[in-house]
Prior knowledge:
GO terms for molecular function: transmembrane transporter activity. By secondary structure, the chain is α+β, with helices and mostly antiparallel strands.
Amino acid sequence: MIPPQRLAAAPIVVAGNQSYDLPAVGHGEDADHETATLSERVRLDEGLAATISGVPGVAHVVPDVSFHADVLADTGGSSVPGTQAGHSWVSAELAPYRLTDGVAPIREGEVVLDSATAGRIGAHAGSKTDIAVRGGVHSYLVTGIADAGRRMAGDAVFFSPAEAGGLRSAAGQVDAFGVQLAPGADVTAVSAQIATAVHDRHAVTLTGDARGSAEFARAAGDGELLIILAAVFGGLAAQVAMFVVASTLTLSVQQRRREVAMLRAIGATPRQLSRMITGESMIIGALGTALAIVPGMLLGDWLFGRLTGFGVIQPVLKFEQGFYPVVAAAVVGLSSAWGAAFVAARYAGRTRPVEAMRETAIPTRWLTPTRLWLGVSSLIGAVALAYLTITVVDGPLAASTAGPAVTLVATAVALFAPGLTRLLVGVVRRPIRALGGLPGYLASLNARARWMPMAGAVTPIMLATGLAIFMLYFQTTEVAVAEKQYSDSLLADAVVTSATGDLPPDLVAKVQQAPGVGGATAFVTSKGYNEKPSDSTQDEDGVDLTGVTADGIAQAWGSIVATGKLDDLHGTTIALPADLAQRLGVGVGAKIVMRLGDGSLATLDVVATLRTTAASASALMPAETLAPHTAAGAPDRILVMAKPGTGEAELLAGLRSQVGGADGVQVAGREALTKAFVAEVQANAWVNYLIVGLLLVYAAISTVNTLVMATADRRREFGLQRLIGSTRGQVLRMMAVEAGIVAAIGVFLGTLVAASMLVPFSAAVSDSPVPSGPLWIYLVILGLAVVLTVVATCATAWFTLRTRPSPSTLAPE
Length: 813
């Protein structure tokens, strides 16, 4: 949900329609229609106010415009912390803002500051302040201080209506209209009439919380991202939950084998036993689900706060948990419990009555047809998802398929865990006996005899370590590959930016005249969609567009031109990647119609085609043509290429002497661009870090629970050892060695599970099968797994051994 802030006092808001119907693929009834969200703000013609005002029930219409305006904290050009935006004073009533000091701005050079901004710089009515706006820094008279009485996502700077009209990004256009109603007018009825009046003007009528999307157009995309992330995390959490609960329940049923066998001996049928186990599990599952609702809500709020804090989603989104998410979570939790109980109940139903007479009955037959079929099916599914991840999915959300793929591999390993554990016990048994002394000898004997119960303890360790290794190294590999690709494709030797976010219009020409500069180009990015001609491969991601300066880009990127000339990028022209031009069936001299990011249609002449490389993955347009159709309305940086033989230090010195310091202009080397890019990628990486952290906490709890259950069940065995002469220390040392064996097998299998996806993924994206990332990550995971296993096992054994053994200890329970 995106609640309105600056537009909260307007019952109805009319804004540009951000949805765009892609050109249909196919013909007639078979045509396939897809909808995309336009990447830039869709603005409206200010003349639309007259149409809206004519609707019955409308009192008056207030246009709203926003543009970049940074209040400077000092004469050095540093911005006040926070985000400021410029507006016309006429839109102040939409928040509503109220003057707490001074008067409204009515002339050019006058402003009213938001109380938060004024407090940061100590401004008051009558003082002066410097504001960077539209590429220049100007001194303004503060005529008043305003406060809206609520917390805003950003601070506001209000200009006089006349000056705001000249500072807005697009002349004659507004961002939205706030509609104030006449007394007694019905919001729903008036909204419907306005929607009818503006239906052919690419506008939408918004009420309630939907009004927030008019203020924060890009936040809607964050909401979609949040839904995807919730689905990814929920799916993985459900798989892990069912996984570990099934393992724990199966171990519990194994420990109750005498009780289950006795019930079979007195006439209980397998179906009755299955219903008993399932019923017990569902009672515990229902109790656990009920207890988890409140902590789950608190955890959801905390997780949402982390996502906004790391910049993954905008903080303007409002976190809400209604009735349906709680019901869905309860259904998932109970379904996981039922699925796990079903697996455990099958084991109980196969128990034979004769096992009631055995003292140490440990099953040896584990590979049933069902287990074999499920294991092989999991491997086939993992291979399919792995292929999809490597060949199709791109970006930080690749974990949406890679994560389930690894989970399926882990599922197959868990299903075959008894056989794998028995095999690996045979491998490590001799070294343990040779190096472990008497505790090692006893531990090796126990491992050889108890390989089936040991497999139940190995499984959660394998799951935890496998997920941790995969998720962390998957992310570090993605970041390293993205950084390398960006660095390799970056042809600029320096970058010129502004601390205020705006570049003066004539700055490119000044940069080109600096000593050592071989070429300079403005740089602005956006997205567009092919209208005519179009092709079936176009999706909601559209075409990446880059705005450049023809002279500068021709010198730097001339080598990637396949046909045509980049010098001709002036006016309404475009240079297309060669593969896109081939799909569209166009070449140099052709005309194409493109829907730009703000919804505008542009007829463009194709002046060049580009060889498809990392540097030419986007189409090129003149910056002066593309920039007005972006939210900022201007380029945000200038890329500078050095003359042959000019070093970076010499180039930077020449640039600083020419343009450095003017209106907050900053000069930096190419590493600044790479660092900014990596910081953006790392912000997305926090999504996976949070997911893996929460999953690992759950897996760790399950691991400890399984180890405690498995160790506590050996009370009679410990008592017998004590009665025949073993000391408490000897038993504890034996258990420490056993815990080490369990941890070693679990970590080894977890490493194989992680490598099953990491190796092919790394080979596909980096031409190296070795994933990128520091070795210490693996060592820390290994160490935590060993420590957790040893501590959980030995602590439980220590508590069990506190009771002095006696012959009664050996009596069957």
